[in-house]
Amino acid sequence: MNRRPPLRRLSMALMFGTAVSASAAINTAAIVSSTVSADCLEYRVVGICFWLRCTSFGCDIETSTKVRHYVPDAVVSSYANTGMNPWTDVADYGSPTVTAQAGNDGTTNHVAENNMTKFKEADVIGHPGGAAFSKFASSSGYICNGATTAYVPYLLSTLDTIAWRYGIPESVYPEALTPGKREVGSFGDQWGNIYPRSGFLDQADDYKMAAVVAQRAGDITTRDGQVHVYWPMLADEDDGYWPAGELLEGDASTGKWQELTPTLSQTCAVFPNTNQLTQAIDGGYAWALWRPYSCCERKGQTFLGSVDFQ
Description:
It is a single chain. The protein has seven helices and 14 strands. The protein is of the alpha+beta class. The protein has one domain. The strands form four sheets. Strands 2, 3, 5, 6, 10, 11, 13 and 14 form an eight-stranded antiparallel beta sheet that branches.
């Protein structure tokens, strides 16, 4: 039998656009190490803050530097079967429930097949790399706190059955019924629609489908008052502290994604990102969601305001 060497098979796969597959499992140690990324951090000095500092000898106006950078708030996993989160240390979070059993696609057990209607579970869990990130980011200067707590689940789709498996009530929202509204990608590279924010999507490419589901999960958890079972990843604005707001697809100023598995990337991007389309052999994907925060060091009792350079 004539068999091509593995390297030749790989080169031909790349040449003809065939998706390369990889194992999806990742552990906490690898996720923590991924926080050392200057590209994702994107640390900048953006302005000056003014404070009124008073003592028994009088009051003075003090200044501090206003900085802006991204924080890895959460690990967002998108996977084919209930209980099979590729982040192995928290896979039990998404175990089957009475109302959420199994998963996968419609025709076979082979997730790489071009089966148009696909289904993914999704988990949004507080990023475990806070200490490592703080140590890395503090070398640039003063740093801002994120909005999440490590390992806390902000969304588990197995607990969001009505919305996630049946699309109720979002299937009749204007965003779900209007073509071209709230979509990932554009004409010629359309990955999928944000609404309804459920686990189903008509998309032949498994990676693209998983990315859209991750975007949906991020969309839900960065907003208040959504008709889902979740906990919002939002912090309150305070003197000298401006937290991240609502995530919007394709807009890096609201958040960006770092692929954790099936390939571990040291850069961040928004979807659609055609540089990373590796298919997971078991249908499991995970990204770190980095969100922008601005802050300045407190230098007095009263915050007077800030001035941005741009």
